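Recap from last week: sequence in, structure out.
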Amino acid sequence: MSNLNSIVERVTQRIIERSKVGRARYLDLMKREGDAHGNRSFLGCSNLAHGFAGAESDQATIAFTKAANLGIVTAYNDMLSAHQPYGRYPEAMKLYAREVGATAQVAGGVPAMCDGVTQGYTGMELSLFSRDAIAQATAIALSHAMFDGMALLGICDKIVPGLVMGALRFGHLPAVFVPSGPMPSGIANKEKQKVRQLYAEGKASREELLKSEMGSYHSPGTCTFYGTANSNQMMMELMGLHIPGSAFVPPNTPLRSALTRAAVHRLAAITKKGDDYRPMAQVVDEKALVNAAVGLLATGGSTNHAMHLPAMARAAGVTIDWQDLDELSGVVPLIAHVYPNGAADVNHFHAAGGMGFVVSQLLGAGLIHGDVLTVSEQGMAAYAQESVLDSDALVWRDTPSASGDDTILRPVAAPFSPDGGMRLVQGNIGRATFKTSAVDPARWTIEAQARVFDSQDGVQAAFKAGELDRDVVVVVRFQGPRANGMPELHKLTPPLGVLQDKGFKVALVTDGRMSGASGKVPAAIHVTPEALGGGALALLRDGDVVRLCANKGSLEVLTDLTGREPASPPPAGEGMGRELYNLYRLNADGAERGASPVLAAAEL
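Predicted structure tokens:
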């Protein structure tokens, strides 16, 4: 690409060079897998008959024709609002497949947690590890070798990364992600945040809080703030794994149905049995992953992807680290303001121009690679368009060159910030991620005495007792993947926000997670090495002076720690199934590598 930004090009080339051995090994494996398992005719007759015995009217097509058989891997359950629409998808997708002479079967289901339900409770300690369980479940679903393509049904936080990781083990097959879309807008996100803080201060009742939350989370569809779930959808577009314009079309609408139909038709066409073979292993390469990183930065997406992106890359034989993200952040402007970075939700973002406008701007400015393979035959240029229905026909049209609302979306030439807002901070405490796009620049630097906790419950108790009413760096340690599975510490946002609103300088330093829903308090998160197993966080004590500075990229304790013994971690939790994941906890690697026990054990 002739106009590619020099820093984007430099980072991409560094990733390619760094990944040369791992990527070659991965592609060689995919070639061998395709040669050995790329056609179900290698199965014995008894094996094959087992595989389509339940296919009813599709039996003969699967058995005796060369038609593509598509494997549906679904994360359906009807507790997750985002995944509730998927209940109806398989039967419709089978009909769509027959329209082009193909067949489709549900290959298997994968678990699908809702972080919003488990947030702040012990079940949240299974959340990050559910990603690796999803990767394994995806592999189990596809291990029957009955399929010519993968239709992947997933939306939310760990589910899409887990599906990507698992599906990449079958990268000799093409893959299309099929989303379901966001729920309608509810109460304003700023109003929701206000009620949460009032409740934290004891100024709102539980009934008032519940009424507010029900006004926000109210119907089928993805939650409308720009957290990890919606960041996933953005990234699938930038990685070329969606039908263009699919990310933010509402569920249960004619346009959504038309996009699902197009996804099935296109998946059939890009199998080996179609006329345009596009295996997932070739689509998800170094350039596609850089495009996803740039999209994440340009839109102010979830910090969870500081772990998920390296993990997904690693599954494709590619190595990405936080220095790569930091350097990209320095040249990628922030062109979207969606809650928690702004007041608008993803429906407002979509109406203002959405992904089509974002991709058009990034392509035009040379910030993403246009010369990539995607599931669309038009390549990345197709994602600079928007999908619409014209007399019941699905068509794509150019996105308007101007934003529909410049309080939500802006051109690269006039961004909200020249910086993408996800910076690496490092020093004698370790390396961490700081999401600057959600924080007032006046708060990017703080130096204060630390108050050290081993749980978020301890923070809550100290806040209620008034012990944190001062300038303070709140340190919450033993929250990393090896300690307890690395739960999100979302319940800390309201009390820390209250302290900040009182005029105190407040920051959070933790080896846990805060996610894309974190908000306005400066935070150094995902600190690695984590406290358990040698991280400097285990040496910190109350009163140590800590300095966090996003401007200089520093994370330091200014107190001399010489001679200190590390604090003892709390015992690993039991109950809520956590003990079943001790094997994951013991084998997890660092956050910067993706915090993946599965990939660590597989040495990929």
